[in-house]
Specification:
24% strand; OB fold (Dihydrolipoamide Acetyltransferase, E2P); 5-stranded mixed β-sheet; alpha/beta; Rossmann fold; globular; 4-stranded antiparallel β-sheet; 4 domains; Ubiquitin-like (UB roll); 22 strands
């Protein structure tokens, strides 16, 4: 095990402030940084010595001998323990879970996001299959803390084993049910989860609390159970490593990896990179970004993907269709450059609404209108190719007009999909409706 880099910015909010010094000995669970405002505690994930502190990270050199024991958080109310444990949303932007659960839902809903929407990632479903009871305990704690009367697991119908295990686990739970989702992207976006489970359409600037609900990821509810049952701080992460690997292209799921472990170390655990490759992505195919083997994982890292090489567009003009559901413009430009294309035109999906912080949010995630107007712009600007980052439905609408205009379409995920043997995002061939059997309602 190499040195661990504990990034001071692992969640929404400002970077945390170190509370250790160079030379300090730390154990698993030692508090090493605290939030200056909105944020969450950061803990050492190994036994070792602090060797360096920078503006970005605390560097820890691990001891040769590691023990299973960890420093426990103080006992207190369930909400206080969740806050003390430094738990954040472990499948998204990293919003502090203690803040989210501090909302009084007044008899509303905990919605468990088990969609695992990004193609190729498998660790959430693996956790449901391996630790069904722990996940269920975490859900019950979340309900109790937030004063929720009901809970709903939102999970894709295709995950048959996990669905059956959940069905068995909740068969005697009057207030916990399952809602089946279609296998399209982005069913895991929190407003999509609210819409699918509760039938409530939220505006882009509305939080699930506007629908008397909290959306919480599978791994996050399991970490809540650990904090309350074991007084365990949040210093480990579940993730999937997949792609062009000597260990095979099937997903490699790693549970309870110490936060701060390098991307390269995890790739080696999956067999190492198989020959020439295109890029390494941290995160999922849609929302992840290019990374390096030296980069550390954080509490929010979901995937590490090694891709095949990019096609060469030989300097052709390219239009970028930026969607709220995929990569931002900077990511799209990065992909275009790696394909040796020249950006000649940029447009936004017609449903991409810009928030106050500059981020884009889809007005109705997963239900998209036509994109003919943008395609006309690309053609007018002399583009031969377009690169899109749209959801399943939006990609489908692009394909309704782009080929007719002579525009050749690449999706920003194509190199990933080809690597992992997943169908490319073009025409939507999956129904957006899933029949709900009576026992799931």
């Amino acid at each position: 095990m190499g040195n661990l880099q504990m990034l001071l910015r692992q969640h929404i909010g400002a970077p945390c402030k170190p509370v250790v010094a160079v030379g300090d000995k730390v154990a698993k669970g030692t508090l090493i940084a605290e939030p200056a405002g909105l944020g969450a505690n950061i803990f050492a994930s190994v036994y070792g010595t602090v060797t360096e502190i920078t503006e970005e990270a605390i560097i820890i050199e691990p001891d040769a001998e590691q023990k299973e024991e960890f420093v426990k958080i103080p006992e207190g109310s369930k909400l206080d323990m969740v806050k003390a444990a430094g738990i954040v949303g472990m499948g998204g932007a990293g919003f502090p879970t203690g803040v989210k659960l501090g909302t009084d839902l007044n008899g509303g809903y905990i919605l468990i996001n088990a969609a695992e929407c990004e193609p190729g990632l498998k660790h959430n479903i693996a956790q449901i299959e391996a630790e069904t009871e722990k996940v269920l305990r975490g859900v019950k704690y979340c309900m109790e803390i937030s004063n929720a009367a009901k809970a709903i697991f939102a999970i894709k119908k295709k995950n048959e084993k996990a669905v059956e295990l959940l069905r068995e686990a909740v068969k005697n739970e009057e207030h916990i049910s399952i809602h089946l989702l279609p296998d399209i992207y982005p069913m895991g976006e929190e407003r999509a989860v609210v819409r699918e489970c509760l039938g409530i359409e939220l505006a882009p600037d509305q939080l699930p609390s506007a629908a008397q609900s909290v959306v919480i990821n599978v791994e996050t509810v399991a970490r809540v159970a650990e904090a309350i049952d074991e007084r365990k701080p949040c210093f480990e992460k579940n993730l999937t490593v997949v792609g062009k690997l000597n260990g095979g292209a099937e997903p490699h799921v790693f549970m309870n990896v110490p936060v701060g472990t390098s991307v390269g170390e995890l790739i080696e655990r999956a067999g190492g990179i198989d020959g020439l490759y295109g890029e390494i992505i941290m995160g999922g195919p849609f929302t992840g970004k290019a990374t390096s083997e030296e980069a550390p994982i954080t509490k929010t890292t979901g995937g590490i993907i090694v891709t095949i090489d990019f096609p060469n567009l030989h300097g052709a003009k390219v239009g970028l269709l930026v969607c709220a559901c995929g990569g931002d413009e900077a990511r799209m430009r990065d992909i275009c450059q790696k394909m040796n294309g020249v950006v000649a035109s940029v447009a936004r999906c017609k449903q991409a609404a810009e928030m106050k912080n500059g981020a884009l949010k889809c007005e109705r995630p997963g239900n998209c209108p036509g994109q003919a107007k943008n395609n006309i712009q690309f053609k007018k600007d002399g583009c031969e190719y377009i690169i899109i980052g749209n959801c399943s439905d939006c990609s489908n609408t692009v394909m309704g007009s782009a080929p007719k205009m002579g525009l050749k379409v690449f999706h920003q995920t194509d190199h990933v999909m080809r690597t992992i043997g997943h169908p490319l995002y073009r025409y939507l061939r999956v129904s957006k409706q899933v029949e709900q059997l009576p026992e799931y309602k």
